[in-house]
Amino acid sequence: MRDFGEPPPPLTLFERLKEGLSRSTSGLSDSITGIFTNRKLDATTIVELEEALIRADLGAAQADVITQAVAKDRYDASISDYDLKRLLASEIGNILKPVEKPLAIDKAKAPFVILVAGVNGTGKTTTIGKLGKYLARQKHKIVLAAGDTFRAAAIEQLQIWGDRIGAPVVAGAAGADAAGLAYDALVRARNDKADVLIIDTAGRLQNKAGLMAELEKIVRVIRKVDPSAPHAVLLVLDATTGQNAISQVDAFKNIVPLTGLVMTKLDGTAKGGILVALAARFGLPIHFIGVGEGEDDLQPFNATTFANALTGAS
Q1: How many CB atoms lie within 10 A of CB 283?
Q2: Alpha-carbon span 97 to 302, nearest angstrom
Q3: Cα 201 to Cα 119: distance, rounded to the nearest angstrom
Q4: Which residues touch 73 (CB under 8 Å, ≥6 apart)?
Q5: What is the tens place of the pLDDT at every residue in 82-125?
Q6: Are 116 and 198 in contact (CB under 8 A)?
Q7: Other beta carbons less than 10 A from residue 197's beta carbon
Q8: Which of 2.60.40.60, 3.40.50.720, 1.20.120.140, 1.10.10.10 would CATH assign to domain 13-99?
Q9: Pairwise CA distance, residues 234 & 182, whole Å
Q10: The whole model's pTM is what?
Q11: Could you tell me where the beta strands, DSSP code E, fall in the chain?
């Protein structure tokens, strides 16, 4: 028996995810309970289930696919909340499994260059700090580049993260040329024999052609140092924006070669199902999800764990 004077054991990954996704889970779970209490799986309940999935931001197309799969061979039959949640978790997991791909660092390409993009407010700079910590724990030597030169606060924020994780930060004055800074950072990372260079970029609104052109310029300039760079281009998305995340992916993938997604702020929304819509539409790897403000709340994405937590299946 544990001594109650000791701190409680740390939460498991599933417990952390379930806690972080509580708003999404409760919305979907409450809908399921409301729909199926003392009712059978018929035309009416199927429509209501589809609407509940759409409200959770899975998207109309995926909501239809999932409800049809759940209803197959079960029409006009009674089904418990527990069984339905398990079925939903299985179907959602099937959609998410193909995009469950860890971020792989190829040491043969050292420094492995990760360019991080995203619109203002997604938590991009914080995500870079957490990603740097995650990679440093794996014994990678990290260099950070404060390429969000539009915001002095972003430069300072990244320098604080660099101090925390013991990574040098290449930074300039606010308003400096971001492409030139990225070039200098790559030269520094190469000279330092770093394993990974992570480049922050300004939060670009997808309808700002000039800002998008600058992101394209960063890619063009760093290729003067390493023609194969960037080796990974991650787009950070904010789960609270729901379906707007789809238009952001559409915009960014037309400018830079996106290789993966990071979804933040899943703990602050009832729209966690947006990951399902993104997975089905783009098939881009989902490397990490953010389920809290803590330094360790950026977690590698696991499809089964996420699907179980989202639906409330145990």
Answers
A1: 9
A2: 8
A3: 9
A4: none
A5: 888 899 999 999 999 999 999 999 999 999 999 999 988 888 99
A6: yes
A7: 29
A8: 1.20.120.140
A9: 16
A10: 0.90
A11: 112-117, 142-145, 169-170, 196-199, 232-238, 260-264, 286-290, 298-300
